[in-house]
Amino acid sequence: MSEYSLPKRYDFKSVEGRLYEWWESQGYFQPEIIPGVKPYVISMPPPNVTGELHLGHAMFVSLEDMMIRHARMQGRPTLWVPGTDHAGIATQLQVEKYLLRTEEVTREEIGREAFVKKTWEWKEKYGGIILEQLRRLGASCDWTRTRFTLDDGLSSAVREAFVQLYEKGLIYRGSYLINWSPGLKTAVSDLEVEYKVEQGTLYYFNYPLQGSQEVIPVATTRPETILGDTAVAVHPEDERFKHLIGKTALVPILDRPIPVISDDYVDLEFGTGALKITPGHDPADYQIGQRHDLELINVLNSDATMNEAAGPYEGLDRFECRKRLWSDMEAAGLTIKTEPYTMQVPRSQRGGEIIEPMISPQWFVRMESLAQPAIEAVRDGSIEIVPARFEKVYYNWLENIRDWCISRQLWWGHRIPAWYCGDCGEITVQREDPDACAHCGSSDLEQDPDVLDTWFSSGLWPFSTLGWPDQTEDLEYFYPTRMMETGYDILFFWVARMIMMGLEFTGEIPFEVIYLHGLVRVSKGEKMSKTSGNVVDPLKFMDDYGTDALRFTLLTGSTPGQDTQLNMDRLEANRNFANKLWNAGRLILNHIEQAPGKPDSSPDLTLADRWILARLNELIRDVDRLFDAHQYSEAGRQIYDFFWFEFADWYLEIAKLQMTDVGPSAWRTASNLVLVFDAVLRMLHPFMPFVTEELWGHLKAACSRREIGLEPAGGWEEALIIASWPKTIEMDADDGDAVQTFLPIKEIITAIRNIRTERSVAPQRKIAAYFEAGQSAETLEAARDYLSSLAGIEPTQLIIEERLDERPADSIPVVVAGIEIFLPLRDLLDVDAETARLEAQLGEVQGQIERLEELLSGPFAERAPEDVVAQERGKLQTYKETSEMLKGQLEALGA
Asked: How far is CA 658 from CA 272, 536, 580, 666, in A?
């Protein structure tokens, strides 16, 4: 029978696509509904249908897939619902650009119906790209449940939600001050406006008073809005202007009369102490206008050109109007001065242009009554936010929430289900398209042209994707979901709204945990965005380093709520980690081939066996604890450290020695290699699914081929993706002490290796070593083979005694864990260098003695548990003994 072996190198390019296709074809991504068993569910944050993969997607997919794979291996019915968002503004812009480029037409020229048809065609052609790219990352979603925010089911949910809120009086229509995007020609929400500190100009001018030579000096950063002023306001206690309250001022150039009013909002110390009031173009002025019942004048068209209310400036761009008006005011002798002024400029998050506050008829949702239950859901612990510091931010936003403008002046999206009657003027809102007005019965109806804010449909995502408003089997079993994993930057855009919507429409929280990952930033710390042109394509990294390396780098290099940058050194190191796993697998499969048959009785475990199994138990417990605490990056790092620095660096080397015995101990060693490697692959699988599945399949095949009892206790599962999560191994009580017992063995070997390196002792040269081991002599004797092989000691010159009768002359002394070691390297001994080394070591030991003496003389000794205090006292005693040994060694050197 030929030997079973792995290829010499791990070829991720030939593995990843093949394994993913196999997983999907076997139905491993689809959960089984098991009554009485609580499922684990994640609703994928739906990427824009226009999107292509960037590192932000790679981060959320890696995190969510890790969570899903972990839950699946725990035996829970596991559902990850994928889908895409119609992304109203983004998609419409893409299609408009596409039409201009390919057909040289605008959407206005072809009309709404044709444009929407073109957009659907564009979506069908390009909209699935990102889903295929998510597959490249290993996303184990249930693709049979893929949803789109404009598909029939979700459209039905959106209309149902709108109608319910409208019938409760929570949706209303009115003309209010909103954020207007001139570039997009639509209203945008407060959350879609980014304020940037920019250098502007403060313009000072005089407001003339009707029938008087007196003037009121005011200042503004936006002179074009002077044309929409409807009052001049002063503080009621300002002695400079008190006598002018009630007088009439004249709008510059237009000579339109406006009142001089008093309002406590005016700051006597700021600017001139008087304010021009433009209720139609400033939020603060709008509030003042409401208090004083001032006229609302809008001077802007939808494209930010001036309208008829601007008089002679009609048709000018807003910034050209600013120049012309100021020039005309200078000519009229109304200007005072200009000066540089640093200010917060509102810009569109999507397009980057300056946002204009404008009065516009829009649809709104009353948010206060929806926000309160959402606040309580987090406050009472029903929903956990990770990291917890974002709770304060969450509360602050919801406690100060404003009504939500949900209408957008777009053509692509969920059209508002409201119809205006041409006869009676009333509005009909209902679930099905009406044939007649609900108020007068007229058939003269016209649907509102606006669409809903994309976040309205996204807010229904956790339950609409499961069938709501219908009471489906999926909704009943999989809702509420377990985890909402997303970026902290959309906590308000999306997460808070999902909580409000979920509680309002289902009476239940939509998810139990909110895990907020940080943003993956580019090298300068900037947020990646298409607008900035700095999006990093992760497909290149996956092609060069493998998907597992990218995933592991992102997962172990990030903490919740903290921004991160992709570390190229770590990416390369994690590609090497995948290769290290592969090479370890090759060695283990070789040992499986060499292993003898299973003995009749189980052979005793060696110290190294007991140590690696005890450490594996500690690792499993630690990883389980870290997963429960959502400390996924630390869990990954601990698995990495255990595999590389303990299993590969130590146990695999020792296993080579133990496998030279053709008897029962060789079988036991092979069995331990399989057990530990199997457990490591299972724990690493959520982080690195491809290399672990491939190796695990080979491990299973090699063990099954030999039929010598190397399989797990429950047998091999069909695939690693559905294999069970590892559990701790039952061990004798004293086996747990093996970790502490083996530690000095490792330290001794490391210390001797270091000295050999420092003295340039050739690796093949065997040296002598004398140990004055005291009570550790028996332990070291049991580890004689390890010491001899791994430290390069000649077996016949390895002397282990409780106390040496005579210390070898001209030897290099080493003290490790209270054990004195003497290495006769006469020809290589540099007395001065050795003295310096010992003195440095003594200094470190003295520092530890002082630290522990201070610790044990303080409150720690009274407050800490007795076993912890005893452990620290033991350390102190060991350091004191080491100090005396080092002093003796320095004395022997004549220092």
From this structure: 89, 49, 22, 6
pLDDT averaged over every residue in the chain: 92
pTM to 2 decimal places = 0.85
CA distance 150 to 464: 11
Instruction: Report DSSP letters for 820-853, one per residue.
Output: EEEE--GGG--HHHHHHHHHHHHHHHHHHHHHHH
How far does Cα 726 stand from its chain's mean position?
26
Q: If you average pLDDT over residues 191-203, what whole number do you get?
A: 90
Facing residues of 79 across strands?
41
Token pair 């879609």: residue: 192
Residue found by looking up tokens 């009621």 in the block: 236
Helix (H) or strand (E) segment spanning residue 95: helix 88-102
SS3 per residue for 762-825? CCCCCEEEEEECHHHHHHHHHCHHHHHHHCCEEEEEEEEECCCCCCCCCCEEEEECCEEEEECC
Phi, psi of 144 (to 5 degrees): -70, -15
Separation CA 696–CA 678 (nearest Å):
7
**Do 802 and 770 form a contact (C-beta atoms < 8 A)?**
no
CA pair distance 697, 356, nearest whole angstrom: 61
Cα separation, 558 vs 636, in Å, equals 11
Per the structure block, which two tokens stand in for 4?
């079973």
Using the CB atoms, write b or e for 189-220: b if 16+ within 10 Å.
bebbeeeeeeeeeebebbbbbeeeeeebebbb
Q: What is the pLDDT of residues 824-880, one digit of tens each?
A: 886 665 667 778 888 888 999 999 999 998 888 888 888 888 878 888 888 888 888
Question: What residue has token string 């190191």?
Answer: 573
Q: For 195, how many CA atoms within 13 A lie in the half-sphere containing its CB? A: 6
Q: Is the dihedral of CA 427, 431, 434, 439 positive or negative?
A: negative
Query: Between the CA of residue 454 and those of 86, 98, 412, 493, what are the distances in Å?
Result: 7, 21, 10, 10
Q: Which residues pair with 487 in a beta bridge?
A: 517
Please state the rounded mean pLDDT for residues 1-15: 81
Identify the CA nearest to 31 among candidates 872, 749, 514, 722: 722
Q: HSE of 469 in the Cβ direction (CA atoms, 13 Å)? A: 14
Pairing type for strands 40-43 and 78-81 reads: parallel
At 204 the three-state DSSP class reads: strand
Query: Tokens in use for 352?
Result: 């980057």
3-state secondary structure of 449: coil
CB 719 within 8 A of CB 690: no
Strands (E), 394-457: 404-405, 407-408, 418-421, 427-429, 445-447, 451-452
- For the record, the structure tokens of 380 come out as 């009472």
Residue pair 402/364 in contact by the 8 Å Cβ criterion: no
User: Is residue 476 within 8 Å of residue 470, measured between CB atoms?
Assistant: no
Residue 248's DSSP bridge partners are 259
For residues 208 and 249, is the Cβ–Cβ distance under 8 A?
A: yes
Structure tokens at 594: 């060499």
Cis, bond preceding 279 (omega within 30 deg of 0): no
